[in-house]
Amino acid sequence: MAKLWGGRFRKSTDKKVDDFNSSIRFDKRMYKQDINGSIAHATMLGNQGVIPKEDSDKIVAELKNILADIENGKVEFLIDAEDIHMNIEKILTDRIGDAGKRLHTGRSRNDQVAVDIRMYLMDEATEISEMLKHTMSVFVDLAKEHTDTIMPGYTHLQKAQPITFAHHAMAYYEMFKRDYLRLQDCIDRTNVMPLGSGALAGTTYPLDRESVADMLGFNSITMNSLDGVSDRDFVLELASCLSIIMMHMSRFSEELILWSSNEFSFVEMDDAFSTGSSIMPQKKNPDVAELIRGKTGRVYGNLMGLLTMMKGIPLAYNKDMQEDKEQIFDSIDTVKLCLPVFCDMISTMKVNKVNMYEGAKGGFTNATDAADYLVKKGLPFRDAHAVIGNMVFYCIENNKAIDDLTMDEFKTFSNIIEDDIYDAVSMETCVNDRNVIGGPAKAVTLEAIEKAEKFISEQ
After folding, report:
1. Which of 2-16, 112-126, 257-271 has the lowest mean pLDDT?
2. pTM of the model
3. DSSP H helical ranges for 191-286
4. Which of 80, 232, 322, 383 has its CA 20 to 30 A from that of 363?
């Protein structure tokens, strides 16, 4: 097949090079963005008198036909045509002849691919944003169910202080809210149109770049032609956003893996989101959570690959940059695959409130509250810390919890301890007295839930 760029060449491209050079197998997914970009470009060329208006109208009409044919499965793309841009231009030229050859006036594949990938990534990021809104809602709903479900909070994976499962769930709401906001920022920075940058130095044709940006829905246009065709920081930024989303999914997945073990038994995965063993009949494996944890590394790898690919490229465009698409497409596909099953896994799991409560009672999670009790009685905090430290050591040696101690035992550690110590170190008091904004107290958590629901509804 004759190349559209082949005038300077006198020898056919090696078949292996055609296969090696071609990107159609993965960039064909940008067909809609490529056609819409070409429709806007052709319309502008006709309006500006760069090409005859009748040719512009013919190009636009046939591009719309090609779009319909692609979506109806009537178009077969060719490897020899290299990429989605050349494939569509070849189909157009085959159908309408010389008029189709005018489409590429004032345009390079360099700025063409730059506008296509920006539009495609904005579309995908918008779709993922909607999925994140649902994810936030899943955690808010989980919190609403468990404002009274007391569980141990951890630092260093050691029991630390009692909290509620609602408070824990709302921590992830906050994480996914930031993920959502990061995506909005990323979309804003991607929403800049590079078309008109040409190969690297713009063009001598009187293009109306602003009108093309308006037709395509861009907020603004790039202000430097070199930058417009040769940077992919918007791809890197999205890859980073997607990596952070996966990290947040992976962290909660790791907790579910731990919590669903016999040692914790805090949660049980629904049968529909678990698998069994081929040899051990008793097994119920949290494979969904494990796969999300595993796929996180895949998305990280794509980010590292993109950063490494871009780090040594001189201005302007280089063929290395074709490698951006497979990696960012894979990250998009992975996040879109993981988010729905992640949400359904959470929505269907069973929470064992009794085991969570018993878990909170063990491990001296009320020790800080015991120290605070002494401080409120007038003891300096460091002295109170030492008293309760000695008390914990005594409890460990005698296999007791703090609230199991008799008053006589309490008095051996401090004579300012009175009967109200028992209420002060109860799990309920430990949680609900922490009513500072951002704390786990039920009243504060309910306010946080209300604000979260308002935020989601306004997006």
Report:
1. 2-16
2. 0.93
3. 209-216, 225-230, 233-259
4. 383
